Amino acid sequence: MPHVVFIAPLFLETTNRYVRGFAELEDVTVSVVSQDPAEAIPAELRPRITGHFRVTNCLDSAQLTHAVRAISVSIGRVDRLAGVLEQLQLPMAEVRDALGIEGLTTEIARNFRDKDRMKRVLRSHDVPVARSMLAHSRDDLAAFIDQVGFPVIVKPRAGLGSRATFRIETPDDLAALAPPDPETPIQVEEFVRAREHTCETITIRGTPVWRSGTRYFPSPLEVLETPWIQYSVLLPREDDDPTWTQFHSINGAALAALFGDRATTAAGTALTHMEWFLREDGSCLVNEVGARPPGVQIMPLMSLAHDLDMFASWARLMALDTFTPKPRTCAAGSAFFRGQGAGDRIVSVTGLDRAIEECGDALVEMRTPKVGQPRADGYEGEGFAIVKHATTDGTKRALRAVIENVQVRYG
Ligand SMILES: Nc1ncnc2c1ncn2[C@@H]1O[C@H](COP(=O)(O)OP(=O)(O)O)[C@@H](O)[C@H]1O
Ligand SMILES: [Mg+2]
After folding, report:
1. Atom 22 in ligand 1: which residue has the minimum CA distance?
2. 372 is a domain residue
3. Which tens digits make up the pLDDT trace of 269-301?
4. Ligand 1 centroid vs 157 CA: distance in angstroms?
């Protein structure tokens, strides 16, 4: 029976969906490493979790290695190590390398976690990407801008969630930027004007077996630059639309490049989250790829649109190398609520009734922001709604009904 160790730092709602996915697998032994105590595992899942080890920091690969080794001594050989967080991917790879566990190695994990390296690998395999450079000094930045012109985008080499990501449009913007230095280089890229899409791909030992995609309205950068924007993510009904299918060969080439010569091993069994640009002239560029399930509610959207439980499917994929593709049956979308005005807390939430009425049957779930709730620090805001409809247009209408009616104010 395969033995999977799942890294679940805290037993939060979303994490528990994955824990449930693993716990419900028959013929799989499941252990968990967490920062939370074992008692925090949901009671109904606890009987199915064979081994547990608590650490103070799941992102510390030494602690993780110690934990996984202890589990293998007490329960038995560990066959797979899985975790969802972007920041976990490299530490987990280090544990696999240290303990000889099949799956994503450190070498490959770095292709996904280091933005400069990712772009270099993709470019060397003729996968279209924006011109980019890892700048180690102000001079590097200036030389790059001389080459590509303003605007450029700067971001951390191992960034995530659009943190510390800025559009630099003028010499003044550049002067205001904390300069890079050899210890803290900055990823700088030509600014791509495009629509931003995602492509979620399931690969089994390197072979893509299923794809789904979404579109961001507006782009994460615009969301970041405009704190009050309530944004949405749309998963369209049409899975054969050329807008999406034209990207499939690029997606396949990009994944093959990043997984490299390990693609046909367990390293190439993954659900990946690829962000890509579609420019006015119809050309596509890969922006970045995560070797992990996507955020911004794309997991529930994929579940709704394909009538399956993506959390359980991912657990099965990671544990058993299998996935049963399902056709798309509807469109789905998520809308994120974000407050307006100054202040640290929500003082009013209006328009909920109207939004619910206008959404009608399309509304699947609404997490409403509450008065008194502190301002969220991430771009996901203080609440969200999930909608689905038989058509893409119906889903867009529902998203609009939510975003245009619900207003959250800080004070
Ligand atoms: N070269 C680029 N041109 C235009 N926009 C970009 C570029 N790189 C990043 N962005 C914007 O910044 C956002 C965050 O950058 P990204 O590379 O996805 O890093 P991460 O999501 O890991 O923080 C993107 O979703 C996109 O909106
Ligand atoms: Mg991104």
Report:
1. 160
2. yes
3. 999 999 999 999 999 999 999 999 999 999 999
4. 12
